[in-house]
Amino acid sequence: MLDTVQVAVSGATFHFDKLYTYLLPPRLCGAVFLGSMVLVPFGRGNKPRMGVVLALGQQEEPGRCKELFDAAPEEARLTGELMELVRFLKEYTFCTWYEAVKAVIPYGAQYRPAATEQGPRLQKQLVRHTEPLYRLAGELPAKPKPTDKQKAAVEALKSGPLPQSQLAELGLSRAVLDNLCAKGVLEKSKTDKVIDLYAHIAPSGEVLELTGAQQRVFEGLAAQMDAGKAAAALLYGVTASGKTLVFLKLIERALQKGKTALVLVPEISLTPQMIRRLKECFGNRVAVQHSALNHTERLLQWRMIQQGGADIVVGTRSAVFAPLQNLGLVILDEEQEHTYRSESAPRFDARDVAKRRAASHGALVLFASATPSVESYQAALEGRYTLYKLTQRYASQPLPSVELVDMRGELAAGNPGSISAVLAQHIRETLAGGRQTILLLNRRGYRTVGMCTDCGKAVKCGSCSVPMVYHKPERKLMCHYCGKTISPVPTVCPECGGKLRYTGFGTQRVEEELAELFPDARVLRMDQDSTGQKNAHERMLARFAAGEYDVMLGTQMVAKGLDFERVTLVGVLGIDSLLFSQGFRAFENVFSLVTQVVGRSGRASEPGHAVIQTVDPASPVLNLAARQDYEAFFAQEIAFRKLCLYPPFCAVCIAAFSGEKDGEALAAAARFGALLGVEAQKTPELPLRILGPAPMNVVLVKDRYRYKLTIKCRNDRAFRALVARTLEAYAAEGLPAKASVTLDFNSDGD
After folding, report:
1. CA distance 126 to 101
2. Is the whole-model pTM more than 0.90?
């Protein structure tokens, strides 16, 4: 009998993403397992491709099977739990097998093909993460007379092997060590580097003391966690109610029980504060996983987790796949945030993966927010999650007072700027009192649109159907979808030659306006343009916390989770673009964003105040957010969702189509809808509504035309099987060549 393996290969499209059978060559027998990373010959040219082994087998004859080229070492294979997560992603998100594999392990832990004298072989993506490890192997000879450095090296290694980095700290060079290896005194091997990324954060020694309300919440959650059964809970707590203290006590309890804990935050900007709190409490038991780490740092942290060197992992969405063993607690802070949903394949929701992992470990998954998602709060009301509430701010601080400013009146009064007279006066008073201000503007850049004064057309990106945004410091127009730029900035219309006038405002323009109004104010701008450098978020937030700035101006990254004692004023600018946007979650997003940013003020001894600028001061959503009245908002929103049949009363699947030709992309979308209808007729008991095709909100991106079908359904196995059959029929007609199709169960409509 011949040993065979079934392999999912990289580079497959969904339409031919199946398992391929390969023979094991004799040299790899006993070295390939379920979950092994392998290199296989693929296609007519036997081009080397990466793969992962998903099944083992045997057969009598070789048939047409090819042999594997190579396999990665056993320690690099996917664990049983990671394999289950790969299967979960494949089934629930309609990604390919290998897209799922790449999601669950970091880049540095992956392999790539390399040409060698023995033929195609696997090579690690990263080799810089190792360093020499030296150990004693023999006696230091008396002749020739040993040098002081050689004696010091032998003395240092008497207590055990040491890596080169530690020996270098003792003043021992690589040349000295390698010379001793040549003499047979030392032996050299390789070991992973060790990086303590946040070693500068010292333990605080703080004793965690809870209020009565926090203690009651903690006791309920701890009892669920101690039961050792999978459970889900929702902690709804108003801003500054002390949810983080409850998290820390729960993590402490998990560690006491011999369990590990995973803490997710929605934005990189929130990780520094959460890392600081965790490191101060738990020291080097904390590992970090997020995209701001370089590949080597991320790999070394991942390896540390994998080898049991960390009990607690903190990070953004991708950290949900951290290879923790014996998981007892998963926390998702600001659980309502859209950044927990991936916008590229595999299009997963970290909340779903967290629940999946909690189920397999018998762990507690805790969702927490001042503005829970409508779906989560409904699940809590129905008893699928246990609901806990913190309705008072920590230390009984009052909620901020809020006023809404009608920007139509400002314009009528001759103020065309982005900062109203009311907000300007409050900033002036805050500066005079030595306190700090946060300003939210969800729009980066300088002037948003270049408009022709003659023909009225905006300067648009040539590859995307969106206006380009003026970035003044770089002196260029930029497309925020594909990144194309125009420099120098045009002054005449490319359509008719008329004069261009740049209108609207972004964070760069408001920064300039603040400098004009308050020349002595120290302004910190935080947006995607200013935080591109490594650790920029951490440095900026630390300097703001230290009082080096008076005003922090930023996009959504300044709205959530941040805790600064000196902030007593918050201003909300440009919220109307979100208020009037498309998507069934538009009002929920506005309510959450405004509530969260308003809650950044008045978190210490002094009361807070917030100013919301809008052209619709009577908006029920803004007024409910101003009062921080989540339950009234929820009652209003859930009625709308039920009436219009939106989640949580159904699932919404967006089938998105992208093609080089407008007509072909639209026709492909329509044909997919027809094929789906044909398949649906075979299972008439399956609830289904198909809307569209319709253009996406931005119809042209990167020279490709985009259309969508909105499918209201029940996301169960029967529906996913129906979609899989439709995809096969779509591929059988050759339509993927005209328009690629992606499926997303987590989109709100675009």
Report:
1. 17
2. no
CA distance 127 to 11: 23
Task: Report residue 708 as tokens.
Answer: 């969508």
CA pair distance 243, 257, nearest whole angstrom: 21
Q: Where residue 533 falls among pLDDT bands split at 50, 70, 90?
A: low
pLDDT digits (tens, 9 = 90+) for 224-244: 999 989 999 999 998 878 899
Phi, psi of 431 (to 5 degrees): -65, -45
Say how many CA atoms lie within 13 Å of 675 toward its Cβ: 21
Give the pair of three-digit tokens for residue 648. 């949580």
CA 502 to chain centre: 34
The one-letter amino acid at 462 = G
2-124 under CATH 3.40.1440.60, yes or no: yes
Give the 3-state secondary structure of 309-328: CCCEEEECHHHHHCCCCCEE
Which of the four pLDDT bands, split at 50, 70 and 90, describes residue 725?
A: very high
- Say which amino acid occupies 715: N
> How many CB atoms are closer than 10 A to CB 261?
28
Q: Residue 12 has which token pair?
A: 């497959």
Average pLDDT over residues 350-376: 96
Q: How far apart are CA 192 and CA 527, in angstroms?
A: 35
Let me know how long the chain is.
750
Task: Classify residue 540 by its DSSP letter.
Answer: H
For residue 346, how many C-alpha atoms fall within 13 Å in the half-sphere facing its CB?
A: 29
* Cβ partners under 8 Å of residue 726, min gap 6: 672, 675, 676, 679
The ranges assigned to domains in the chain are: 2-124, 130-192, 212-388, 401-444+505-641, 447-504, 651-744
pLDDT at residue 446 is higher than 50 = no
pLDDT in tens, 267-287: 877 777 888 889 889 988 899
**Of 302-306, 531-535, 625-629, minimum mean pLDDT range:** 531-535
Domain 651-744, CATH number (from 3.20.20.70, 3.30.70.360, 3.40.50.970, 3.40.50.1240): 3.30.70.360
Q: Where are the beta strands (DSSP E) in 173-273?
A: 186-192, 231-237, 260-264
Q: 401-444+505-641: what fold?
A: Rossmann fold (3.40.50)
Q: HEC profile for 263-308?
A: EECCCHHHHHHHHHHHHHHHHHHEEEECCCCCHHHHHHHHHHHHCC
User: For residues 531 and 524, what is the distance between their CA atoms, to the nearest angstrom?
Assistant: 11
SS3 731: helix
212-388 adopts what CATH topology? Rossmann fold (3.40.50)
How far is 101 from 86, CA to CA, in rounded Å?
6
DSSP element (H, E) containing 376: helix 374-381
Residue entry with tokens 């009625």: 639
Please give the single-letter amino acid code of residue 558. Answer: V
* Cβ burial, residue 360 (10 Å; 0-12/13-18/19+): middle
Cβ atoms 373, 336 nearer than 8 A: yes
In 527-681, DSSP assigns E strands to 551-554, 567-573, 609-614, 651-659
Paired residues of 440 in beta bridges: 554, 572
For 22, the 3-state DSSP assignment is: strand
The structure tokens listed for 13 are 């499209």
Which conformational region is residue 631 in: left (phi greater than 0), alpha (psi within -120 to 50 degrees), or beta?
A: alpha
Cα gap 175→181, rounded to integer Å: 10
CA torsion sign, 490 to 496 to 501 to 502? negative
The two tokens of residue 509 are 């323009």
φ, ψ (nearest 5 deg) of residue 419: -110, 120
d(CA 604, CA 564): 8
User: Cα–Cα distance between 302 and 573 in angstroms, integer?
Assistant: 40
DSSP state of 140: P
The SS3 assignment for 240 reads coil
